[in-house]
Design a protein that fits this description.
Blueprint lengths: L11 H21 L2 H4 L1 E9 L5 E9 L3 H10 L1 H11 L7 E6 L2 H15 L17
Length: 134
């Protein structure tokens, strides 16, 4: 389970199960979901409810609009649930809801802003080198 999505402390079993669901779903999605329709989907975290009945699955996507990928994944959530049921040996397999994770996009944007700020001569009136070295 990704710590950035964790809102309250989860039990060890909850974390282990969330990690296993993330791994299994990633394999199923990679094998069964058409990249030309949904883009390249990467799961970034799974958050389970305390009773294991519901799972929020966070993903990033390249090559498609996040809304399109989320709609496709949520349309296939029932089928993905049935595939998970075959793989996991637990009594309750959670229902799945997919949410785009904007963290990666924000990170890239922040990195680009930092790179721009570090380019020499970007700001008028700010010298590129200290006064004492001129």
């Amino acid at each position: 389970m990704s710590s950035r999505h964790k809102q309250k402390t989860a039990s060890g079993r909850n974390i282990r199960l969330a990690d296993q669901i993330q791994k299994d779903l990633a394999v199923i999605i990679q094998r069964e979901i058409d990249i030309s329709r949904a883009g390249l989907i990467t799961l970034s975290g799974v958050e389970l409810s305390a009773d294991y009945a519901h799972a929020k699955v966070y993903f990033t996507v390249l090559g498609a609009e996040p809304e399109l990928a989320a709609n496709l994944l949520n349309e296939k959530a029932g089928w993905l649930h049935s595939q998970l049921f075959k793989l996991l040996h637990i009594h309750t397999v959670p229902s799945l809801r997919f949410f785009h994770d904007p963290q990666l996009k924000r990170g890239i944007e922040m990195s680009q802003l930092i790179d721009q700020a570090n380019l020499p001569g970007q700001y008028a009136g700010v010298p590129d080198e200290p006064e004492d070295q001129r």
